[in-house]
Each structure stands twice: as C-alpha cells, then as structure tokens.
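Project outcomes to date are best conveyed with an example. Our students and postdoctoral researchers have been running inverse folding experiments weekly, and each run begins with a structure described purely in tokens. The record below, which covers 277 residues, was selected by the lab manager from last quarter's runs and is presented without edits.
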C-alpha cells in the first residue's frame, strides 16, 4: 500500500473535504454558471448526501472535485480543500496522487466505464497500475482481496471474467472494488444505484455502509432519490439551480424541511411516489 500523502497531517475528526465558494461554468460561450458559489464541508468518515433535481449541478460538482473536467471545458474558481490542500492550486503530480488515489469515483450503471473487452480483474487493478509500482502478483493479490471485501463471488474466477458475464449488481461491486483498491479517504458516488433494481440497490447500499463503518471511508453520495440518501447518509445537502439551498442532519431535514424545493421532495417521498429526476 502506498503511504497516503495526508496520513499524519490529518487527525480524525478534521475536515476531509471542504468546498469554499466553488464556482463552475462551461466555456461554451453561453457563460452561465452551473455551480454558483457553493460551500460544503465533510469530516473524515462522514456520509453526506447531495440531492437535487436533474440539471442542478450535482454531477458537475462531483467531476470538479475528482478533477475529471478539463480546463478547456470549464472555468473553476473558489477552493477545494482536500487533505489540507487546495486542489485548485496543486501541481499536476500532486493532483494525480490525491484525486486518483485518495478520492475514488463511482458512476451510475451502465454509463460506468467498465470496458467490455477487458477482464474484470484487470479493471479492478487499474488504479494500482496508475498510482503504484506494485508488480503484477501484488496487484492481483490486492484485487482478489478487495473483490472479496465487496462480496464478489469466487474472486479468482470473477477476476478472469468479462463484464457481460456479471450481473448489474456484480458489475457495480466490481466498480466499487476498483475505486476502493487504493483505500481512498473519500468515495464520490454519482447515482450509483439508480440503474439497479430495488433488491440489488439495497445490497449495494448495505455494502457502501459497511465500507464506511469498517474502513471509515467518507461517502459523498449523489442522488435524486431522497429515500436512498436517508438510508445511508447522516448529513444531506440539497442543491437547487447550482446552489446549496439546505444542509443538515438527514433526519432533521426530513422532519423539518426549510426550502420549498426540499419540502416538495420530502412530500413526494412521504406520499410513496418515486421522485424521478
Ligand atoms: N458538457 C457540458 N457543456 C455545457 N453544459 C453542461 C455540460 N454538462 C452539464 N452541463 C450543464 O450543467 C448543468 C448541471 O448539470 P449536472 O451537473 O449534470 O446536473 P445534475 O447532475 O444535477 O443532473 C446543467 O444545466 C447542464 O445542462
Ligand atoms: Mg447528474
């Protein structure tokens, strides 16, 4: 395991991630800001839900934190403090280490980036190839370990399989294994269970909860579905048209929503309706 850059500088309980006046606009000539000055903080090992309707800026926020939007595409200002450093001021090599290794990112199936032509094991190991010098045997050993950790059946067989030989839930477990193989401090999950049926969705949420509890990885959990967030997140932030309009303990926000948009979301959940984005 590579040593985490921020291992000693970051005692438990300190901020893991802090967004300060984060602004993002696309350089597409229209000049509109899609993330409009948001402030948000997460402690180590915290579970924070980011909810909001389609187009409110959740994915852009996630991709910006993970450093996955190119400078040509967007203009970003403000601060993203992670592991005590402002990611917007880091050198490329620092960024590679922090964003690729200490932050894991998981997307919705089937838009996720599992390559249909590559074996599962090879893809689970990818972050180790990028961020460590571990030889093949060590990488394989760690991949089998983490595949067991996420409850993939018979890791050494699954290792050799191709994505189409796995169920949707197993593919999402493989994605989680890959994101978790470097033992990141933060997992950003963008609608990770939206494409899965309800039973599988619950199993994946339970897995994420276990990873959070046993390995104290922080979860930034993005969803348009408030029920999912309630199941897994202690805190919730509500995003509306590029701004955070509400933030607090999930139970509190649920029982006493302040913003009109949140009230509508909560009312829809209480009425048992599914809130599509
Ligand atoms: N590549 C892009 N170019 C221009 N605008 C974009 C691009 N991607 C997203 N947007 C705009 O940014 C806003 C926020 O999008 P997004 O973060 O994907 O919303 P959410 O994830 O909350 O549904 C939307 O208005 C969307 O149209
Ligand atoms: Mg989105």
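After processing, the design step wrote out the following sequence:
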């Amino acid at each position: 395991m590579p040593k985490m850059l921020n291992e000693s500088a970051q005692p438990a309980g300190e901020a893991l991630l802090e967004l300060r006046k984060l602004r993002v606009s696309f350089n597409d000539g229209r000049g509109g800001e899609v993330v409009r000055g948001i402030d948000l903080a997460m402690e180590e090992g915290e579970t924070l839900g980011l909810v909001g309707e389609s187009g409110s800026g959740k994915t852009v926020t996630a991709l910006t934190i993970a450093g996955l939007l190119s400078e040509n595409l967007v203009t970003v200002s403000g601060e993203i403090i992670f592991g005590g450093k402002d990611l917007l001021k880091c050198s490329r090599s620092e960024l590679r280490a922090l964003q690729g290794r200490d932050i894991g990112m998981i997307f919705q199936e089937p838009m996720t980036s599992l390559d249909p032509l590559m074996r599962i094991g090879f893809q689970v190991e990818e972050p180790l190839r990028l961020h460590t010098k571990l030889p093949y045997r060590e990488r394989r050993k760690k991949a089998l370990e983490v595949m067991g950790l996420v409850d993939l059946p018979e890791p050494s067989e699954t290792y050799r399989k191709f994505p189409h030989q796995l169920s949707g839930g197993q593919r999402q477990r493989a994605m989680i294994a890959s994101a978790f193989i470097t033992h990141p401090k933060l997992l950003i999950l963008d609608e990770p269970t939206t494409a899965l049926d309800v039973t599988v969705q619950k199993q994946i949420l339970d897995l994420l909860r276990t990873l959070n509890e046993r390995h104290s990885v922080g979860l930034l959990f993005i969803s348009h579905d408030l029920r999912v967030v309630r199941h897994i997140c202690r805190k919730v932030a509500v995003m509306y048209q590029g701004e955070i309009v509400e933030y607090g303990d999930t139970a509190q926000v649920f029982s006493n929503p302040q913003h009109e948009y949140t009230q509508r979301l909560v009312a829809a959940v209480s009425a048992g309706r599914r809130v599509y984005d």
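Strands lie at 15-26, 33-43, 47-51, 74-82, 85-86, 103-106, 186-190, 218-223, 235-240, 243-249. Confidence is low (pLDDT under 50) at residues 1-12. The training component of this project remains on track.
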